[in-house]
């Protein structure tokens, strides 16, 4: 399992324009600093588990209790909130409850289970280690600066995932690109459906 930040606006840092033009028009939404975190998980045989999306918000706040709880996508992914839209110890437990435990119950009963994570602080807390022990999961932390070699999710899933999201974002921008009209901000619902 690994998480990756996902900006709501994926505008390119480069532009193209005809040679000699003095002005380059850049269209963007008001979401240039808004982001969420997506946690992706794969199994040793390449199976993809339910993704988790962490939005900015308070755990018991309006976004969590009304908007995410009523999301049409809540059965296909785990939705959570955190004050900075980042993975932390609390939503690591949400991931365990919503992704790992159901997988263990359906596919791994009685089999040895190893969980490979990088050394991100939320992955290496005493309570998380205790939780993994209680589930019979052997936790393996990948040494720093080695994830690109030892964690296939970075290259095999994370990069293609971001590439697909970027393609969908460009299509979304094209569909909303009416002349002289401010582009709307992408909603949390649109991010979930992405």
UniProtKB/TrEMBL annotation:
Pfam family, one: DDE_1
Keywords per UniProt: Endonuclease, Hydrolase, Nuclease
Statement: the UniProt record of this protein carries the keyword Nuclease: yes
GO molecular function: endonuclease activity; nucleic acid binding
Protein name, as recorded: DDE superfamily endonuclease
Top-rank taxon: Eukaryota
Domain annotation DDE-1: ranges: 34-181
InterPro entries in alphabetical order: DDE_SF_endonuclease_dom (IPR004875)
